[in-house]
C-alpha cells in the first residue's frame, strides 16, 4: 500500500526546485548567486531542504539486509541512472567524448549523485549499527566531520563522487532523519514561538554579517555554508510545517504546488536544456538593478518550469523513459 504523501513536504520541494532554477538562470548570465543579500537569503535553504526532506522520509528504526540492498538498488535506478542519461545527452550536445563524466564528474547533475550517496551511507550505517543510540552518534559525528571539512575550500577524491558536496549536505540529510526519529519533539520545536523568533533574528544577523569581509576565510564559509543554512532551513521548514493544514486543502494552487513538488527531480534533470544564456549580455539585461533581475529571473523560472512539466508529461508516455530517465516509479 502506498504511503500517504505529506503535502507540506511536497510544497517544500516545490519551493526548492523553483529557487534552484532561479539560481541557475541568474548565475548562468553573469550574476553571482551570492552577489546580494536577497540572493544569499534565498539560496541559504534552497538545497538543504531537499536533503532534509529526503532524510525525513528515509528514516527507519531498523532494516534487514534484503531491505537495505533493495532500497539501494531502487535509489540507484531513480537517482543515478537518470542523471547519467541526461549527463550523456548534455555531453553529446557539447561534443564531449563518451563517458567524459567518469573523469570530469557529473557537473550540473551532481545533486542526484550526492543525494544517492547520502541514502547509501545512511542505509549502510543503519544495517551495520543495530543500536539506534550508537547509530545516531555515528551520524552526528559524520555531520560534524563534514562541517570541519568545509574549511578545506577545494574538492577532493574522484570527481564523479563529489565528496566535498557530500560532506556539505549530508548533515542536512541526518537532520531530517533525526526530525523523523524525534518527530513529536521536532513538531514542538518548529511550532515554538520563542524559538521561531530567535532563529529569524539570528538568521538576519548572520545574513548581514556575511556582507562584510570576514577573516579568516574559513570563518566566512562556516557562517555562510553552515550557520546561515541551518537558520534559513529551520525558518522555512517551520513556516511550511506550521501551515501544513493549508497545503492539505484541495485547491488549484495546492494542486499545482504538489504537482511541481512531486516532479521536482524530473524538473531538475530537464531544466538545464531550457536555461537562457545571454552571451554577451545585452545592454538591457546588464543594466538591470537587482530587484528587476529577480523579477526577470522569476518570469524565466515560471516559464522553464512550465516547459519542463510539458516535456515530463510527453516523455512519461513511455514507462521505461519515465523510470530510467525521469526517476519516476
Q: Approximately how much helix is present in the residues?
A: over 70%
Average of per-residue pLDDT values: 87
- Kindly name the structural category: mainly alpha
According to DSSP, the number of beta strands is: 0
State the order of secondary-structure elements, H for helix, E for strand: HHHHHHHHHHHHHHHHH
How many helices? The count is 17
Q: Which shape, going by the Cα principal axes?
A: globular
Strand content: under 5%
The separation of the N and C termini measures: 14 Å
Radius of gyration: 20 Å
Q: Major beta sheet, specifics?
A: none
Q: Which ranges are low-confidence, i.e. pLDDT below 50, for 5 or more consecutive residues?
A: none
How would you characterize this protein structure?
With 329 residues, the chain is mainly alpha-helical. Helix content is 73%, strand content 0%. It is built from 17 helices and no strands. It has helices at residues 7-27, 37-43, 48-58, 65-93, 101-104, 110-128, 132-149, 163-181, 183-191, 193-209, 217-242, 244-248, 252-262, 264-271, 283-286, 290-315, 319-324. Helix 3 (48-58) packs across helix 8 and helix 4 runs antiparallel to helix 6. The longest helix is centred in the N-terminal third of the chain and has 29 residues, at 65-93. It is globular and about 60 Å long.
Secondary structure blueprint with pairings:
Blueprint: H1 7-27, H2 37-43, H3 48-58, H4 65-93, H5 101-104, H6 110-128, H7 132-149, H8 163-181, H9 183-191, H10 193-209, H11 217-242, H12 244-248, H13 252-262, H14 264-271, H15 283-286, H16 290-315, H17 319-324
Helix pairs in contact: 1-11, 1-13, 1-14, 1-16, 2-11, 3-6, 3-8, 4-6, 6-8, 7-8, 8-9, 10-11, 14-16
Amino acid at each position: 500500500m502506498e504511503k500517504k504523501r505529506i503535502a507540506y513536504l511536497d510544497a517544500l520541494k516545490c519551493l526548492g526546485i523553483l529557487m534552484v532554477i532561479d539560481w541557475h538562470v541568474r548565475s548562468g548570465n553573469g550574476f553571482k548567486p551570492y552577489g546580494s543579500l536577497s540572493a544569499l537569503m534565498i539560496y541559504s535553504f534552497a538545497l538543504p531542504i531537499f536533503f532534509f526532506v529526503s532524510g525525513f522520509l528515509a528514516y527507519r528504526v531498523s532494516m534487514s539486509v534484503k531491505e537495505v540492498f533493495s532500497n539501494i538498488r531502487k535509489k540507484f535506478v531513480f537517482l543515478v541512472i537518470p542523471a547519467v542519461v541526461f549527463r550523456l545527452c548534455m555531453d553529446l550536445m557539447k561534443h564531449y567524448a563518451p563517458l567524459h563524466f567518469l573523469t570530469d564528474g557529473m557537473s550540473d547533475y551532481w545533486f542526484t549523485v550526492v543525494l544517492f550517496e547520502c541514502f547509501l551511507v545512511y542505509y549502510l550505517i543503519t544495517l551495520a549499527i543495530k543500536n539506534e543510540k550508537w547509530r545516531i552518534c555515528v551520524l552526528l559525528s559524520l555531520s560534524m566531520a563534514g562541517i570541519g571539512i568545509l574549511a578545506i575550500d577545494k574538492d577532493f577524491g574522484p570527481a564523479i563522487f563529489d565528496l566535498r558536496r557530500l560532506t556539505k549536505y549530508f548533515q542536512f540529510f541526518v537532520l531530517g532523519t533525526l526530525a523523523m526519529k524525534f518527530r513529536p519533539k521536532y513538531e514542538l520545536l518548529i511550532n515554538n514561538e520563542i524559538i521561531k523568533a530567535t532563529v529569524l533574528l539570528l538568521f538576519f544577523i548572520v545574513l548581514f554579517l556575511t556582507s562584510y569581509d570576514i577573516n579568516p576565510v574559513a570563518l566566512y564559509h562556516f557562517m555562510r555554508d553552515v550557520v546561515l543554512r541551518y537558520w534559513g532551513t529551520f525558518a522555512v521548514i517551520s513556516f511550511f510545517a506550521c501551515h501544513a493544514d493549508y497545503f492539505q486543502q484541495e485547491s488549484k494552487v495546492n494542486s499545482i504546488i504538489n504537482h511541481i513538488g512531486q516532479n521536482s527531480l524530473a524538473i531538475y534533470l530537464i531544466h538545464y536544456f531550457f536555461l537562457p544564456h545571454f552571451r554577451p549580455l545585452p545592454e538591457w539585461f546588464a543594466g538591470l538593478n537587482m530587484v528587476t533581475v529577480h523579477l526577470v529571473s522569476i518570469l524565466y523560472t515560471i516559464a522553464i518550469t512550465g516547459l519542463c512539466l510539458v516535456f515530463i508529461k510527453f516523455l512519461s508516455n513511455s514507462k521505461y523513459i519515465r523510470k530510467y530517465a525521469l526517476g519516476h516509479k
